[in-house]
């Protein structure tokens, strides 16, 4: 039986989003193939992680395109973006923890393209008066990534309902952690 690379990759993504420390033997089993067949597709864990990175970048870029970040209010575009990324958030959470992807000079240019497009969306929201201007677009982008990963982990662990994913991420990101009336229950020292 021939095993298709995309099937192996998506099976690996599904497993590693649940168990980031899974061995190559466990990945092969999840894909319904042998370790030798897995090795023919991916020479080792590093090659598998790099292929998952390419998949994650493609999924993010597709979600960004579908979110139409230049249309309508910026907050609505953020909501569309988060909803579009939600099905892939587990994979992104796994990738977020893979330090090898973000160290050194081998950083994939796809992340830079994604960062720039998301930061542009936040800049647009700041220029229109929708978003706070005291937080940089770069920080808002990083905060979005952190919230996506945290929500994916919370959903995977059953601590929050999957149906609440988009609402939780968008409301915390865009609303911030401030009280709705802008007051604080105690003064800062």
Commentary on this structure:
- By secondary structure, the protein is mostly helical.
- The chain is built from nine helices and no strands.
- Helix 1 crosses helix 4 (about 45-65), helix 4 (about 45-65) packs parallel to helix 7 (about 110-125) and helix 7 packs across helix 8 (about 135-155).
- The chain is elongated and about 55 Å long.
Distance between the termini: 67 Å
Cα shape: elongated
Percent range for β-strand residues: under 5%
Biggest sheet descriptor: none
Instruction: Give a count of the beta strands, DSSP E runs of length 2 or more.
Output: 0
Structural class: mainly alpha
Topology:
Elements: H1 5-18, H2 24-31, H3 35-41, H4 45-67, H5 74-85, H6 89-96, H7 109-127, H8 137-156, H9 165-175
Helix pairs in contact: 1-2, 1-4, 1-6, 4-5, 4-7, 5-7, 5-9, 6-8, 7-8, 8-9
Summary tags:
189 residues; mainly alpha; elongated
In short:
The protein has helices spanning 5-18, 24-31, 35-41, 45-67, 74-85, 89-96, 109-127, 137-156, 165-175.
């Amino acid at each position: 039986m021939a095993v298709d690379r995309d099937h192996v990759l998506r099976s690996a993504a599904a497993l590693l989003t649940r168990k980031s420390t899974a061995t190559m033997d466990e990945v092969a089993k999840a894909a319904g193939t042998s370790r030798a067949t897995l090795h023919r597709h991916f020479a080792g864990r590093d090659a598998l992680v790099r292929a998952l990175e390419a998949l994650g970048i493609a999924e993010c870029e597709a979600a960004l395109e579908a979110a139409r970040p230049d249309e309508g209010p910026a907050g609505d575009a953020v909501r569309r973006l988060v909803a579009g990324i939600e099905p892939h958030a587990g994979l992104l959470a796994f990738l977020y923890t893979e330090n090898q992807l973000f160290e050194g000079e081998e950083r994939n240019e796809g992340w830079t393209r994604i960062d720039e497009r998301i930061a542009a969306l936040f800049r647009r929201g700041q220029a229109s008066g929708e978003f706070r201007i005291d937080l940089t677009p770069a920080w808002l982008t990083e905060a979005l990534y952190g919230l996506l990963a945290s929500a994916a982990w919370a959903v995977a662990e059953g601590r929050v309902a999957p149906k609440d994913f988009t609402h939780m991420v968008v409301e915390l990101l865009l609303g911030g952690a401030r009280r709705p009336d802008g007051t604080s229950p105690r003064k800062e020292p």
